[in-house]
Design a protein that fits this description.
- By secondary structure, this protein is an alpha/beta fold.
- The protein folds into two domains: 154 residues, Rossmann fold; 114 residues, 3-Layer(aba) Sandwich (Rossmann fold).
- It has 13 helices and ten strands.
- Strands 4-3-1-2-9-10 form a six-stranded parallel sheet, with helices on both faces.
- Helix 1 packs across helix 11 and helix 5 packs across helix 7.
- The longest helix is centred in the first third of the chain and has 17 residues.
- It is globular.
- Bound molecules: D-glutamic acid (DGL).
């Protein structure tokens, strides 16, 4: 297989917070970002729908030459990653890899909590999948994990209202609910691409002993370790420092909103997923 970029997939713009960290930790690689803005949000959709949408997007990234795809979206990582790894890759793309954001987070969280009581904030889809408690139990069975779904936080961020008074109300509501579930929490995972943008409010309104764990840098660090352990994958990645941004919806809107998540202006291109059929790799 020819070398190619690292694919970074998200349901929309949010994964740009993860891409930002990846490009600053591992700037040498080429990155191809795909946001499925035409079908966002994923956070409220069923398992079957998230799995189908995510696999379609992963195939498009494969057909554009990505040997490795990161699912930057928590909802896709929760609902589609395992099935793609177990049911799709062995048959269609045995030498390519798809990685998510939940496992790297759960590997670390137990090291950060002193009280051994942690909280997870995420979309309804991520929370109802129980992916975080299930994964955390594999590494840290002694941790008590409490979860809270925050359905309105993504729309608040997407509409640039995340620092408004209205946002402050909805932030408070979920922080209190989580605290009531377990008053001994000291570490809280921001289990959604959009939540790092709410950090100024979260840090102001949360109990002072809470420490928030945002995923970008953590995922980037884990990817660097993964590539060291897997030279057969690392050698397939192209290294010209290129970044390309694709969306399934309007390129103009993507370019306009992306700066909020990525911290700098980007020039996006619109694609039709069915223009990129994936021909399965030879075994
Ligand atoms: N990217 C999604 C996540 O991290 C949030 C947006 C959505 O619901 O699609 O869960």
């Amino acid at each position: 297989m020819k070398s190619g970029p690292i694919g970074v997939f998200d349901s929309g713009y949010g994964g740009l917070t993860v891409l930002k960290a990846l490009t600053s930790t591992l700037p040498q690689y080429d990155y191809l970002y795909l946001g499925d803005n035409a079908r966002v949000p994923y956070g409220t959709r069923s398992f079957e729908t998230v799995y189908q949408y995510t696999w379609e997007c992963v195939q498009a990234l494969f057909s554009m030459g990505c040997p490795l795809v990161i699912l930057a979206c928590n909802t896709a990582s929760a609902k589609a990653l395992r099935s793609i790894q177990q049911e799709k890759l062995p048959h269609f793309a045995p030498n390519r890899r798809v990685l998510g954001v939940i496992r790297p987070t759960t590997e670390e969280v137990g090291l950060l909590s002193t009280s051994k009581h942690v909280g997870i904030l995420g979309t309804p889809g991520t929370i109802s999948s129980d992916s975080y408690p299930i994964e955390i139990a594999k590494f840290y069975p002694e941790l008590k994990v409490s979860q809270e779904a925050c359905p309105l936080w993504v729309p608040l961020v997407e509409n640039n209202q995340h620092l408004s008074e209205g946002a402050s109300y909805f932030v408070q509501q979920h922080l209190e609910a989580l605290q009531q579930r377990d008053p001994q929490i000291d570490t809280v995972v921001l289990g959604c691409t959009h939540y790092p943008l709410l950090l100024p409010l979260l840090e102001k309104q949360a109990p002072k002993n809470w420490r928030f764990l945002a995923q970008g840098e953590l995922v980037a660090g884990k990817l660097a370790e993964y590539l060291q352990r897997h030279p057969e994958m690392e050698s397939q990645l192209s290294t010209q420092g290129q970044r390309r941004f694709l969306t399934t919806d309007s390129a103009a809107s993507f370019s306009e909103k992306a700066a909020l998540f990525y911290g700098e202006a980007v020039q996006a291109e619109k694609i039709e997923l069915d223009h990129y059929p994936f021909t399965p790799d030879a075994h």
